[in-house]
Amino acid sequence: MPTTFTVYNCGTGYNRDKNDIVARLNRDTQSPHFITDGPGSGGFTPFKGHNPGGKSTLGGLIGGSGVDSNVDAGLDAVKQAMRAGPIIVNMCGWSRGAVTCYKLANAMAADPVTAGIKVNIFAVDPVPGGSALNNHMWRNIGASANIGISAVVLAQHDRRSLFAPVYPTVDGPFTDVDIMPGDHSTIVEYKEGKAEAHELVYDMAKRFLRARGTQFA
Fold first, then answer.
1. 119: phi then psi, degrees, rounded to nearest 5
2. Mean pLDDT of the chain
3. Which residues, including other chains, have CB under 8 Å from residue 217's CB and lie 6 or more apart?
């Protein structure tokens, strides 16, 4: 029976110490798991982040610098988890962290060591970024063949061009798409007078992950 290994990927400017749903789920997880801090989350003090992706500052905030480092860190973590025996991988991310989930799944599919591992993804408003500086964010984000099921939640009321989400291409894996009232951030964290959406998304993500083996407090 494979063990479930869960990877969480924070959004731009967010890290494991925040109170968005990705950080909360990470803190609530009791089965084996790993988290990457979002690009630009280290602030303007260099090398303050917990891992390579969070250490980037302005480049992380504007251009997503650090995402590729997070993919590498996630791939290394998966390989470490494999040493204890067979695994499946659940992932959850928001914003560029959701895009990171698909990039990591593609990296796993391309690596002979991890290509046979099944992946499940819960992606919240996957936003690569709308400027030319974000072109690299649009690479390797299709639904690779190792994905068993992918659930995507999109913010209904965010019309900003820089926050336009990507709809992952579906080439076989089942993808379920839900629309949640709110903007890019109100669907993942508390905002005054707008508490319901992010609690619903938190519950949806928790149910998705738990149904596939992630254990919570």
1. -125, 135
2. 84
3. 28, 29, 30
